[in-house]
TrEMBL record, chains A, B, C, D:
Keywords assigned: 4Fe-4S, Glutamine amidotransferase, Glycosyltransferase, Iron, Iron-sulfur, Magnesium, Metal-binding, Purine biosynthesis, Transferase
Cofactor: [4Fe-4S] cluster; Mg(2+)
Family: In the C-terminal section; belongs to the purine/pyrimidine phosphoribosyltransferase family.
SUPFAM superfamilies for the chain: N-terminal nucleophile aminohydrolases (Ntn hydrolases), PRTase-like
Organism: Frisingicoccus caecimuris
Annotated protein name in UniProt: Amidophosphoribosyltransferase
Catalytic machinery residues: C18
Length: 476, 476, 476, 476
């Protein structure tokens, strides 16, 4: 099970690294507050920092800080943001770079005026690009890829007729995952890397175009889903409407579409590249029921990410779906962890078992993934202590074996339990009566035959991973 | 559906007014931090203010403030609280008295030293008691009942050999609902009113006695459930252990046990007076399926409080249990409500429909209650907009018709929709294809035959309601 | 030298314990914000907590918290306070009771409605009164004297026709120092103890009566000084104007008027009981010049409290007045004290010497008092290090030998350096070339012959000091 | 009178724009906390934002934010800053760019690693430099000159053997005022522009070199003054000690030394380029007494900046120096300004008159400058209302006629009263009985014959002022 950073850390955590949301009202209407609600519905994609940049009277202004959308934006500062074009960003990052300087959107001045950039994904050649730029005198104030992209766009813009053309010319330099929003005072540009690693979709409500990481954000602002941005496509929205530049489409040999968006990251009410996230989770559960059947009395999910696959398992197997856990929703970022005498209670504070529901029962427990495996055993034990006679664990993804370099913080190989033990051994270590993972060769059924990246499971990266890390942040 | 104040206001809200948690380590061990975790698991009972009082070296100290347990207590101030006896409180209140002065525990000095009081429930004769005390020169600095109780105990203690005896002598004056913790520097006393309105239970872990509003809090600190405090019972815990005073037990003619704890307030993993809250909700769903059957494709709950009854309905009816909604868990107290152009999005920001799950389906939607009915219709409409062909609403409680005076903020009769319209009319107003409430005469099955208070449904109050309100708060 | 707590701790500190300010607009005009500015000008009398209570539409409301007036009151909360009657309070306290519960005004409900109390001074029989009240069932939630006074007034009010009569009847029970404001929904009452320990004055501007601790607060709100409240007098202001009850006037055998208000506490622009504080300080300097003359090149004050007496010394002696120090005004309460390698810099960070002004000069350095004497030597040394050839220290008050029990935190006898060493010894310990204190028998010239309390210098208390301390605070 | 922004706004305000402080312990000792105290003593040079960057183990880290040193740095974050090299900055700015992004030091990565820059002064060709850099692809994230300087240094460093050489090569591009600190992981570099606009001095304590805007900061950390950095000089401090590069010294035709540092900006305990600031103010007062004598009873300063010149006037004229005002030191940045009925009190809240000191007297009132002249009249009127029979105003600087482009926010010509009225007219408008300014041709006596910039008085700029403004900030 993989959980949001701020409120649900029950055991291991994986994180999406960002969400973006932009809007353009072509009649000049003020849509700044839309970004607030859009980011709010993308909060699961990043809980560390957030920001909004607006273009008001062809002047770009912004506000960003560490914290949840709810915390960063107050009625006072939201009231100061107005504009007919606006973009926003929510961000997660690994500990080292959780600093204010890295909050997005990145707003800069460059040769043609102002530019705001919001980016979801990870470049694999960021270090090389930085070095090359530094060799030409560049200075870097952050460790985010958006700053690299801003430089590349600025560099191209010097010799190039429009900002969208500068984005087009910068793209060949940028290798890796990016779902990108670029706002100039007059234009909203969206670009998705040719591999399509990260989702990006287009919606519309009346005179307002919306671009967002997930369709759930379109629903939130009442926008109708129009279509996904295609891998390699550049979208330009200006007063006259939306135009598309497909010169880079169909260039990637392999798809980079992240299967883990379906397994865990995305909100279940989103539809990515035509496939419902919810349906894909139900399907994962069904496949598990077919491939790893077992006799039992109850199918339960580890809340909340395991619930949908559990429902799928129940539907397919005919074993009743039920509930075994109560999660405490009040565990926030400021939660004080127990020490000494209370340490063994750590999981229980966040997750309690419904004893009456599991006592004397054979349980099938569905979770979305196992990373380090350190606390999964605790949960199995909690079920047994509550009287479950058997606990069969089913995981709605294949075993993690390789790190991700494209915007997900799957840790390095040493820390992944599946690199050290067999499935049987892991099951035993957890105290489970059986353990079954989703079969790699059936995973494609989850996404109705779409192509996707499964490198975290089989190491087959669509793009060569980076060989060096970026140097650490300086702010603290 | 009735929701927690801070994070889940989807439509109408009802609130529990408090939760209490106390602990005593009879070997002198420090259990102050237990209260933090105990309160944390009772946070659903009150999100407005909270506090902890400890007895360290026979000296009582406290800290309390407005906010969630997570917000009020920091590592710094929690580290300053130590003691082998401690009590804590979480509080909800109606707007007027949401002031810092009213946070609990109330800590006072009186004739025999120090006293800390934490109280769940509402007295019905508080105004009379205040007037009587004022006529003898009392001054009041808050509008909470704990202050009245402190006065009564202090008054008795002048002529009485022990604090527990003072509590005993004060009880006849106190009419209404109270699950009460009283801490002196050397003793922890718990008392439950003879009607047993509010839950209160006893647990133990090694040398530590725990008293809490709900058993889920015992689980959180790893304490074993011993038994419920009986209606009318006074429990005294001191260095020598636990003693019970049952002189007031069995005195009430009617039970005041709040059925709404089972329907909505309590956490599903709690067991109150021997009945599992989870089971009672499953049972409510089953009864609904028996009494209000309908042909349909899917049974769904309005999250999260409707989910358990929905599972019960599904089990009984054989119609598959499913999921129709995704709730945004990031809606906190500081959430900025949309204005103007976005207003119609208000519910959608908090609750989105899984279109793929409901499209073309006949849905049975289970919610726990209808108060004003103002937004239930929106949710029905959301399902229909998403393509549901039929929406049948089932409510896992009878229609609210009467206000509660014992610790729940059910509003006055005028605001309760069930006093103005028939069930058919309400269903029509909601746009539901049918509407069914839990039958009043079958409600008892939820609690396995326990006696209970159902005054909010039929006006049959176990104790005469108050005739006057307390005057308003002065702090703001 | 004795300094304000928050920003000027250069060496020893003494503190006034409170300031009060009240206003009543007899035509119903809103004067709530006057209290803000009045308290602001009395901030030197207490920097720990503050509060304002207003009577709006005959309903009393309040806001108070820890912090400076500037910090506690924001435009938002000040905008919520309206009324034609209002009182405010600024408070200092010794460390133990620096808790939020002790902030004033104390607002209570009692037999006849609402009551707000703000108090400057210390009762000497508070412990006895508390015990007596507790024996009748009272509970105490704070350790401030205002709570005792509120009880006494409430007790009398039960059998008494008006609140002002209740104040009158309560006064015989209250022994000690009090300059008191009592606000009922319709009246503003001011009372000063028969000894006149603490100042209290009356002003008027158009239809608004003002009562304040010092006249500087009248200036701030543009009110004209009318007269001081007499020792023992009770003032009642209602819609019809101001009335006076002098039944307790002239009852005290001795005056309790605090000479230290003139020496250090009060603002120099205040006039107390007819004597200008500024003039009294100039006079102290002149007397020092007469009684402790010395040949020198420059007279300087330790900023800021020594400056006025230094000017007086210069005027009388003919030696030029000059400046030797620059104080850093940015030392606030959150200033981080140096550790280890920087410790010897501690005084220098707050106070630097003007080397060019003192080099090669014989300096007379005036300070207002010496308490523990621990850091005065540092300042003398700083002057010598900067090149002063001689440093003659003159103190504008006699040596402190006895603690104060009436509202000043002069520490106990053991800690007062003058109880352990002769004047010569103290001078030597400081490294001064000579040391001279104000002569006790000439101190009266400072206040133009007014009677006053000089107990801190000679132990001759106008009222017997208390024999017991109040028990400690419970909040932290 | 010109006042600090945060606490003393009595009338018009002028602001210094920055202060810098750096230290290097050549034995590897931790001196991070020195920066805190150094900045603290330079707080008068900028109260808007501040920051500290350290080099610890050859890695640069920083913390900066809006607020006073006291507010930004807590024990927690100060404890995280360690290093043997460190620089800090305090900043003031005009309203538009008071944003967090503009706080300094600016810390960047560039071709050779890390770089931190802190800068006092204003470039006159910043807009041109930005445009040129942008034409080569640069992006700008702030509007501060430090970012321009960082780019120039980074650009040079690409082709140049050391960071100090890069600073050297960048300097010809940089026109305007700069007292600059540059920290690389191993070096501390200080540079002062060839005009010497802003002060910069060197101190030493044991193994630690210190570079600071003013000598008062050396005193604060116990460092001995070594010498001023010469105009045009580059200082390099590394493990081996301090080296100097004077290749740009003596290049400027005119001195840019800011006379206003002596008149108002600098702390009186500082010595700049060999002249004591205190002495220069005393001298200004003496010159005023010689050039604008008048019969009177008392010489007073408008606190606090007028006091020293007032002492000089008194010394020269033989008229006694006295005190006429009491300033409220508690007026902080969050002070709520009076509205409506209290508006006329606005000045009085901050400044009250000592009526007893001025009544019946002829007063000479010394202030340091008049900018817009809007409130000076109020102060004269306050003296007259308090009974002064005559008020003669003397200003310790010549009339302001021209704006400053080198780091002081003297407003544009239209807003300067001296451009609209004669001295006589201004005196009349203020209600003064006479008005005298310091004579421009005698001003040099203040600084003992040093060369200086007097462009704000006579428009004779040592360097051509900029023709264009930088575009506004985007953050808010």
């Amino acid at each position: 099970m993989i959980k949001q950073k701020d409120s649900c850390q029950i055991k291991e955590e994986l994180h999406e690294e960002c969400g973006v949301f932009g809007a353009y009202n072509t009649k000049g209407g003020d849509i700044a507050s839309w970004i607030y609600y859009g980011l709010f519905s993308l909060q699961h994609r990043g809980q560390e920092s957030c920001g909004i940049a607006v273009s008001e009277n062809r002047d770009i202004r912004y506000y960003k800080d560490m914290g949840l959308v709810n915390e960063v934006f107050t009625p006072e500062n939201l009231d100061k943001l107005h504009g007919d074009i606006a973009i926003g960003h929510v961000r997660y990052s690994t500990a080292g770079s959780s600093v204010r300087a890295n909050a997005q959107p990145l707003v800069t001045k460059y040769v043609k005026g102002q530019l705001a950039i919001a980016h979801n994904g990870n470049l694999v050649n960021a270090v090389d690009l930085r070095e090359e730029l530094e060799k030409n005198g560049a200075i870097f104030q952050t460790t985010i890829d958006s700053e690299v992209i801003a430089y590349l766009v600025a560099r191209e813009r010097v010799h190039c007729p429009s900002v969208e053309e500068a984005v087009f010319r910068a793209m060949p330099y940028i290798q890796g995952a990016y779902s990108l929003l670029v706002m100039s005072p007059r234009k909203l540009i969206a670009a998705r890397d040719p591999y399509g690693f990260k989702p990006l979709c287009i919606g519309k409500r009346d005179d307002t175009w919306v671009v967002a990481s997930e369709t759930c954000a379109l629903d939130t602002v009442g926008a109708e889903f129009i279509r996904d941005v295609e891998p390699g496509e550049i979208i330009v929205i200006n007063e006259e409407g939306l135009a598309s530049d497909r010169r880079y489409c169909n260039l990637a040999e392999k798809s980079g579409r992240c299967i883990f968006e379906y397994i865990y990251f995305a909100r279940p009410d989103s539809v990515i590249d035509g496939v419902s996230v919810f349906n894909s989770r139900i399907m994962a559960g069904k496949i598990l029921a077919q491939t790893h059947p077992v006799e039992a009395d109850l199918v339960v999910g580890v809340p909340e990410s395991g619930n949908d696959a559990a429902m799928g398992y129940a539907l397919e197997s005919g074993i009743p779906y039920g509930r075994a856990f109560v999660k405490n929703n009040y565990v926030g970022r400021t939660f004080i962890k127990p020490k000494q005498s209370m340490r063994e209670q750590s999981v229980k504070i966040k997750l309690n078992v419904l004893k009456d529901a599991v006592k004397g029962k054979r349980i099938i427990m569905i979770d979305d993934s196992i990373v380090r495996g350190t606390t999964s055993g605790n949960i199995v034990q909690m079920l047994k202590n509550a009287g479950a006679t058997e606990v069969h664990v089913r995981i709605s993804s294949p075993p993690f074996k390789y790190p991700c370099y494209f915007g997900t913080d799957i840790p390095n190989r040493d820390q992944l339990i599946a690199n050290h033990y067999t499935v049987e051994e892991i099951g035993e270590m957890m105290g489970a009566d059986s353990l079954g993972y989703l079969d790699l060769d059936r995973m494609g059924e989850m996404v109705e035959g779409l192509e996707y990246c499964q490198a975290c499971f089989n190491g087959d990266y669509p793009l060569a991973p980076p060989t060096r890390d970026i140097r650490g942040d300086m702010e603290f």
